[in-house]
Amino acid sequence: MARTNGKSEIDPQELDATRELPASDNAEDDPASLESPARPSTESSELQKLKVERDTLIDRLARLQAEFENARKRTAREQQDFRDYALADAVKALLPILDSFERALQTGSAEKSEFRGGIELIYKQLQDALVKLGLRPIPAKGEPFDPHLHEAIEMVDTSDAPDHQILEELQRGYKLKDRLLRPSMVRVARNPKH
After folding, report:
1. 151: which of 29, 81, 86, 171 lies 20 to 30 Å off by Cα?
2. What is the rounded distance in angstroms from the CA atom of residue 129 to the CA atom of residue 174?
3. Are 125 and 100 a contacting pair, CB within 8 Å?
4. 167 and 159 Cβ atoms separated by less than 8 Å
């Protein structure tokens, strides 16, 4: 406590919530002084137990938060690793096809029929590799229009086909296992008689 001009000022560093205030000069103003002397020590020990329990719980909470954050980071890292390995497997399956294209393009003046045969072989090789990865084409031409699998680019008025039948596939659609990768772009029949 510092004194200035005859008045006492409290230094903020001297204040501590864990310290008890000094006893009052007037015993009548202090209700604790009216109680038995054994009571304050019991309250003090209970207060100490509560403080220890509080500190234990805060420590436990901090540890749980740290464990949760570490688990979240570990899971994100594992998911990224899985994506990277899955992508690596897919690309590895396509490398022989890339090699075949390079060999086909390096051949000089081959006959057009031989070149076409080589390209058809590479196309078949690519299809087989993609089928092994789980890629399936969506059937379109002649099928009934399904908005979940097909994207109608044009409606054609015709009486030659039933209403909502696919007349032509403009771009093939694909599913990867059960997931739609790309819908088929199609022309659909509109038959006003049906």
Report:
1. 86
2. 14
3. yes
4. no
Looking at the chain, list the stretches that DSSP marks H as alpha helix, in order from N- to C-terminal side.
Answer: 38-106, 112-132
pTM confidence score: 0.50
Judge contact between 8 and 1, C-beta under 8 A: yes
Return all residues near 175 (Cβ < 8 A) that are at least 6 apart.
Answer: 135, 136, 138, 149, 181
Of 155, 133, 138, nearest in space to 86 by CA? 133
Whether 152 contacts 186, CB under 8 Å: yes
| Tens-digit pLDDT profile for residues 149-180 | 999 998 988 888 888 899 999 988 888 888 88
Total residues found in the chain within this entry: 194
Distance between first and last Cα of the chain: 100
Contacts of 24 (CB under 8 A, 6+ apart): 30
Say what the pLDDT of residue 11 is.
52
